[in-house]
Amino acid sequence: MKRVIVLVIAVLLAIPVFAQQKNKAVKNAIQTTVKSTQKDEKGLKKVYDEELDPMSQIDEALEIARNTNRLVICQVGGNWCPWCLRFANFITTDKEINQFVEKHFVYIHLNTSKEHKNTDMLKRLRNPGRFGYPVLVVLSREGEVLHIQNSAYLEEEKSYSREKVMAFFKNWTIEAIETIK
User: CB within 8 A of 49, min separation 6: which ones?
Assistant: First the structure.
């Protein structure tokens, strides 16, 4: 009887460890799009991995979002798009924006291109490409499309406006959308 109790306790204690390891693996799979070492002709990191299945990326991001009480932001575009790479670079090099995004969102890059149209992903996200690229799609923890952001409204000259980008992110946190004033 003691062995059974010890075994049950050991299994119950191991479950959170396995879940944490799975979440780390999923998070690492999602973050590979940001860790690319390939660069475009202007030296910007190519953040879109054309080999990843975007539907799986979304599902994995949603799992992390549910477990960490965050929303998902999908940056849809491709390495062919200079503005897509500029936006990715902009939000990763600004320390305050980067920390804010990491705290409040699971952020993924979803590829679409002539070679990889990924029409199922585009349908799932309610055809965000109609606004041009990059386009940002905010998903609830359940996968519901909450907002599609045309990134042109966040631009400033040949880059992005820090104030507009920060306002966009602040307006789409869980706290912002779930708070009734």
Answer: 32, 33, 36, 109, 111
Q: Which CATH architecture has domain 2-178?
A: 3-Layer(aba) Sandwich (3.40)
| Cα–Cα–Cα angle for 130, 133, 136, rounded to 5 degrees | 85
- Give residue for tokens 């690492």: 28
Domain ranges for the chain? 2-178
Q: Taking the model in full, what pTM does it have?
A: 0.81
CA atoms within 13 A on the CB side of 40: 17
| Cα–Cα distance measured from residue 100 to residue 105, given in angstroms and rounded to the nearest whole number | 8
pLDDT at 12 exceeding the cut of 60: no
